[in-house]
């Protein structure tokens, strides 16, 4: 009995000692590493000596770091050895050549957008996450800053995507353009010689496909849901040619879904879809569409085109033997004689604000390596992330690329608030409203203008609820 | 001196008395289940009720949540989509009744000696064992134009032009979904009924047979009264189940095209629009509706039962 008590006591003491040790070390860690940084005199660790994106020099800083970091992301396809491009395994092997001490464990998830929020909410989440849809005001609760926005915009494109209060919290994994992925052969067979540049030209092209070929002119992928929400992206730069539209003007616009009369703005974007559905230019039974299957169908010429971002381009090429038939064209809206495309960052890497200092350092190194050395964006047919780099596989002749300007300071949350209160959820999973638009177009039970009026009303109510100033 | 010693002895001995020991044992055994129940059921539920009075998103930190009183509840009653979705439950309730009748019918047949009875029991119970998500995917392809169902009907002589779009046509798609629900759950109901019928005393059947009763009479006067409790229970479970149907519409149609049941709409509001307060209020309202339904059914069966007595 006494022995047992003694053992218990000993165990307790050991446990409490280690516990103390742990808290002590985590508490002191920042100070220690700060000093070490200064001592090692890495040339970039300037000023306050804090860990920033700029202070990391790949191959020089933190080369003796020995730690394990976890990464949570949405690229389940890159987990598979069958993946046509470069897999996560291959990236990690390459990374470990430069940083053998940093062990990176990658978890991927098919339901990433939802599950990532759950992970964040639980408080116990991975070292590196692709930042999901959260309010910008909450960024600093979950993620550590990479540095000031000024400093970061000199290093990476799209730094403003996840910035708040002048600090930058996200570095994009890759960037995409927005247009339409199509089958060149189907368009040629149908007699469409020139790519359509306006909504009416586009609808005509779809009609020609329907008349002259067996292909489905436009495949909506209605059942998948998110493929419908993808239409929201086009209402910004593509439909207005205005880089301030989405983040600065939309929140203050009165009736943003009204008919501008010149085939531009949101009205024109959604009308393309409505017209295509009501004229029977889409798949026969849209409720049973199959996303995975649609890739092969486009590749084999059974589908004319799909309205998806340029990220889908490599997947369509890889889905069958006819990679050369696949093309990517600008969205058919012309603003004052010119076509525009938004270039937008894909998911951003964010670093867990509650990770240990060592993990944060390793995460910073890994993200900088992914951005500058891995070639990830190029392999994925994206647009470059590092400022000044122009290498890319995409070619949009005569199309001007614009980036969305960030919201004005103090108004960062406006779009999120309006999205939530109006339940239109523009660019944030608002699939239902567009699915309903397709239903109404197919069943012919509500006119397009009525739907746009409803959306305008919802938007106006939300603007009033949040007392946001509205201009004509 | 002596007195205090005595007092001490009395105090000490309470936990050693039979009663004390009983209490102690009971307490010890109850601690674990009660803790689990409170931590994983009542506490989260209380939190949800609290959420329903706030305007908040999942990611809103606690100090930034805005208290809005009963506004969320008012919204639940004002919005078309919340209560409109409850109308869809009527489809599922009709389905539930069909399901119970089918289950009772097969249970009665199978509880008498039928050829291959066990095989049929197995086959009919089998769908219940399949994961709901898998069933969703099976039926998504089952209903796809030109796939399983259409092919089978075509073989039976229907022409493709006359066949409806099972999921696209808004007059039919809810029935399609209800059918999958019936297919999945009726086996479970049936097994419960068989269990109850098995427990009926055999001598009653013998006596009935001697008296010259036929099978429908045996069913009406012996089987049905004996398994009344199980029937009542199954009806209540099916009706509450149809109020909260979720899996079939969520997996097969994603709640689109007029198939969004109350739960699907709630999920959409909570996870897409991030109106956690409103969704919590919807959950509480549904709970109250289920309470009311259950009480009404209890009263109804009490009434029926009394009539039978008279």
Overview of the molecule:
The complex is a heterodimer of chains A (472) and B (310). Helix content of chain A is 41%, strand content 13%. In chain A, helix 2 (88-98) links the parallel strand 1 (67-73) and strand 2 (102-108). In chain A, the strands form four sheets. In chain A, strands 1, 2, 3, 4, 8 and 15 form a six-stranded mixed sheet that branches. Chain A has a four-stranded mixed sheet with strand order 11-12-10-13, sandwiched between helices. Chain A has a three-stranded antiparallel sheet with strand order 5-7-6. Mean pLDDT of chain A is 86; it is low at 12-47. Chain A has 472 residues and is α/β, with parallel strands linked by helices. By secondary structure, chain B is mainly α. Chain B folds into two domains: 2-73, no CATH class; 74-309, MetI-like fold, CATH 1.10.3720.10. Helix content of chain B is 75%, strand content 1%. Chain B contains 14 helices and two strands; from the N terminus they run ααββαααααααααααα. Chain B has helices at 2-13, 18-51, 71-78, 80-111, 117-129, 132-143, 148-155, 173-198, 202-210, 215-226, 228-243, 247-253, 262-271, 276-309, and strands at residues 54-55, 66-67. In chain B, helix 4 (80-111) packs across helix 8 and helix 13 (262-271) packs antiparallel against helix 14. The chains are: A alpha/beta (472), B mainly alpha (310). Chain A binds chain B through residues 114, 117, 120-121, 134-135, 137-138, 141, 222-223, 225, 284-288, 419-420, 423, 425, 428-432, 435-436, 439, 442-443, and chain B through 57-61, 64, 140-141, 143-145, 147, 165, 167-168, 170, 173, 253-258, 268-269, 271-275.
């Amino acid at each position: 009995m006494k022995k047992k008590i003694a053992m218990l006591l000993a165990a307790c003491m050991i446990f409490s000692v280690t516990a103390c040790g742990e808290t002590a070390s985590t508490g002191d860690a920042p100070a220690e590493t700060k000093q070490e940084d200064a001592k090692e005199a890495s040339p970039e660790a300037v000023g306050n000596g804090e860990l920033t994106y700029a202070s990391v020099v790949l191959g020089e800083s933190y080369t003796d770091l020995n730690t394990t970091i976890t990464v949570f992301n949405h690229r389940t396809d890159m987990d598979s050895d069958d993946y046509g491009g470069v897999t996560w395994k291959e990236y990690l092997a390459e990374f470990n050549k430069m940083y053998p001490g940093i062990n990176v464990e990658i978890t991927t998830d098919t339901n990433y957008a939802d599950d990532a929020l759950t992970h964040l909410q639980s408080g116990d989440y991975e070292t590196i996450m692709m930042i999901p849809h959260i309010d910008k005001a909450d960024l600093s609760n979950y993620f550590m800053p990479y540095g000031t926005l000024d400093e970061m915009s000199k290093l990476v494109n799209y730094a403003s995507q996840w910035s708040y209060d002048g600090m930058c919290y996200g570095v994009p994994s890759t960037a995409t353009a927005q247009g339409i992925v199509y089958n060149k052969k189907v368009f040629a067979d149908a007699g469409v010689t020139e790519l359509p540049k306006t909504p009416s030209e586009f609808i005509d092209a779809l009609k020609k496909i329907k008349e002259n070929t067996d292909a489905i002119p436009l495949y909506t992928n209605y059942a998948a849901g998110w493929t419908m929400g993808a239409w929201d992206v086009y209402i910004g730069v593509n439909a207005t040619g205005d880089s301030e539209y989405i983040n600065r003007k939309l929140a203050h616009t009165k009736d943003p879904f009204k008919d501008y009369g010149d085939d531009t703005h949101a009205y024109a974007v959604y009308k393309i879809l409505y017209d295509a559905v009501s004229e029977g230019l889409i798949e026969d039974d849209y409720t049973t569409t199959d996303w995975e299957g649609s890739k092969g169908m486009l590749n084999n010429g059974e589908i004319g085109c799909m309205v998806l971002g340029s990220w889908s381009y490599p997947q369509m090429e890889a889905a069958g033997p006819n990679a050369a038939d696949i093309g990517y064209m600008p969205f058919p809206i012309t603003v004052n004689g010119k076509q525009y495309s938004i270039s937008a960052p894909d998911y951003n890497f964010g670093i867990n604000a509650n990770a240990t200092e060592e993990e944060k350092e390793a995460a910073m190194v890994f993200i900088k390596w992914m951005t500058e050395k891995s070639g990830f964006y190029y392999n994925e047919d994206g647009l470059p992330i590092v400022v000044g780099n122009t290498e890319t596989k995409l070619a949009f002749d005569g199309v001007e690329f614009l980036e969305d300007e960030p919201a004005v300071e103090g108004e960062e949350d406006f779009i999120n608030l309006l999205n939530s209160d109006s339940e239109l959820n523009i660019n944030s999973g608002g699939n239902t409203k567009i699915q309903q638009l397709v239903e109404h177009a197919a069943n012919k039970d509500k006119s397009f203008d009525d739907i746009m009026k409803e959306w305008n009303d919802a938007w106006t109510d939300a603007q009033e609820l949040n007392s946001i100033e509205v201009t004509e | 001196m002596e007195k205090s010693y005595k007092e001490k002895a009395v105090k000490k001995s309470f936990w050693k008395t039979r009663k004390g020991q009983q209490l102690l044992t009971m307490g010890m055994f109850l601690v674990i289940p009660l803790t689990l129940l409170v931590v994983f059921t009542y506490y989260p539920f209380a939190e949800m009720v609290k959420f329903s009075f706030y305007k908040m998103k999942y990611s809103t930190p606690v100090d930034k949540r805005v208290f809005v009183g009963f506004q969320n509840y008012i919204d639940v009653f004002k919005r078309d989509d919340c209560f409109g979705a409850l109308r869809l439950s009527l489809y599922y309730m009709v389905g539930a009744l069909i399901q119970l009748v089918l289950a009772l019918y097969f249970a009665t047949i199978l509880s008498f000696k039928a050829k291959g009875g066990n095989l049929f029991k197995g086959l009919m119970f089998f769908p219940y064992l399949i994961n709901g998500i898998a069933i969703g995917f099976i039926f998504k392809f089952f209903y796809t134009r030109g796939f399983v169902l259409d092919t089978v009907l075509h073989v039976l002589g229907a022409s493709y032009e006359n066949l409806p779009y099972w999921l696209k046509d808004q007059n039919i798609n809810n029935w399609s979904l209800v059918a999958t629900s019936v297919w999945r759950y009726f086996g479970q109901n049936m097994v419960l009924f068989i269990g109850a019928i098995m427990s009926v005393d055999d001598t009653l059947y013998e006596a009935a047979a001697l008296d010259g009763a036929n099978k429908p009479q045996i069913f009406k006067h012996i089987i049905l009264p004996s398994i009344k409790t199980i029937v009542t229970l199954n009806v209540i479970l099916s009706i509450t189940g149809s109020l909260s149907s979720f899996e079939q519409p969520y997996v097969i149609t994603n709640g689109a095209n007029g198939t969004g049941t109350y739960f699907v709409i709630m999920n959409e509001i909570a996870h897409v629009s991030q109106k956690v307060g409103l969704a919590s209020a919807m959950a509480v309202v549904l709970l109250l509706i289920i309470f009311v339904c259950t009480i009404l059914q209890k009263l109804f069966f009490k009434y029926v039962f009394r009539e039978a007595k008279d």
